[in-house]
Write a structure and sequence with these properties.
Helices cover 34% and strands 14% of the residues. It is α+β, with helices and mostly antiparallel strands. The strands form two sheets. The chain has a four-stranded antiparallel beta sheet, with helices on one face. Strands 2-3 form a two-stranded parallel sheet. A hairpin with a 5-residue loop joins strand 4 and strand 5. Helix 3 runs antiparallel to helix 5.
Length: 173
């Protein structure tokens, strides 16, 4: 499955949804500067747990300049080590099985879907079920832990060396 691989976007917090678990899909980490993002504090403090899945392409799509990308990739490595965060990366070579667009599952009552022309709040249980199944499919294709860290490191090395394409063929999956 290849979600929209354009960029890594920032997580959103919903103060009116204080559930114990938030589930977030593709590009749900910070496109903006993570330490300065008010919303990202929920990754470091509180009781929520997070599960993010990013397309490997999001690690390589230039947002800002090289220094911005190096900073963002470094922050992803930090997020990878957080105890309440599970970060998966969909390798560029994964099998396309689940059509998807960018969405964020807050719980079993709300899915936030981003489209080009609108943001949708999905609240119908049968539709939320479909997003949950899509997320499960994405999560099953993703790599985690040291393997995800190596994909982030490959992209970081590529930006640091000035060769953004370096390491693209060396996927660990």
């Amino acid at each position: 499955m290849q979600p929209d691989p354009a960029v890594v976007s920032r997580p959103r917090s919903k103060p009116d949804h204080p559930e114990d678990q938030l589930v977030v899909d593709a590009e749900a980490l910070a496109q903006t500067d993570i330490p300065r993002s008010r919303d990202v504090r929920i990754l470091y403090h509180g009781i929520h747990r997070f599960h993010f899945v990013l397309a490997e392409q999001a690690l390589r799509t230039m947002v800002g300049d090289t220094n911005v990308m190096i900073g963002q990739l470094d922050r992803l490595l930090t997020v990878l080590s957080l105890p309440r965060v599970r970060l998966g990366i969909l390798p560029a070579t994964h099998q396309y099985r689940v059509p998807s667009n960018q969405f964020i599952m807050f719980d079993d009552r709300l899915v936030h879907v981003e489209a080009v022309t609108a943001e949708l709040a999905v609240t119908q249980p049968r539709e939320i079920d479909l997003y949950a199944k899509a997320f499960q499919g994405l999560a099953a294709e993703a790599v985690y832990g040291d393997t995800a860290g190596e994909l982030i490191q490959q992209a970081l090395r590529a930006f640091s060396s000035g060769n953004r394409r370096q390491g693209a063929a060396d996927n660990p999956r």
